[in-house]
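Progress narrative, Year 2. Work on 2OG-Fe(II) oxygenase from Chitinilyticum piscinae advanced from sequence curation to structure prediction during this period.
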Amino acid sequence: MILENAPLSALIDALAGEGWAEARGFLSPGEVARLAGISQARRQDFHRASIGRAAGQNVRDDIRRDAVLWIDNQDPELGFVMQRFADYQQQLNRELYLGLNELELHFAAYPAGGFYQRHLDQHRQQDTRVVTVVLYLNPPDWQSDDGGQLRLYLDDGSHHDVQPAGGTLVTFLSNRFEHEVIPARRERLSLTGWYRRR
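Result:
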């Protein structure tokens, strides 16, 4: 479901119904620019993203081509956006009884040509990741020809492409929707992560 400048309650309703929501205007242009600036200032700390976990973790450029920087949830520079995410978590727990107790987040940067093949956000035989969030930090002049869309594969066999416009939040049930990142033609920035339960 596509929402414009919607309150958190509308995201909750969409998640309870269709299982996903695209919320445009989740952050203001000024807030997007501030986060993008923080991401750019920390670029030397990014590392190539991997797939798998533990002993099976490795870098596979044929599956995904992006770089990430994991976030400390107490980072004082990010307090304004972490509060928004904390409010969303509290409302998810209150209204949908999901038992979420933590949020893991990272900055993600896809270079020109970067992509991520179709996948599900839950590791095998684990259900700790419950709700996925992707918040785009791209500049306002982003065009559809720039690529980098998130393709969400829906229950009816169709798909929905999300334009990675700055300030847009995509949220969906992690165990339900496979998705991929279409190759970007310019650098694509986001803050991405998962609400988790133990």
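Residues 1-48+108-185 form a domain with the Jelly Rolls fold (CATH 2.60.120.620). The longest helix spans residues 79-96.
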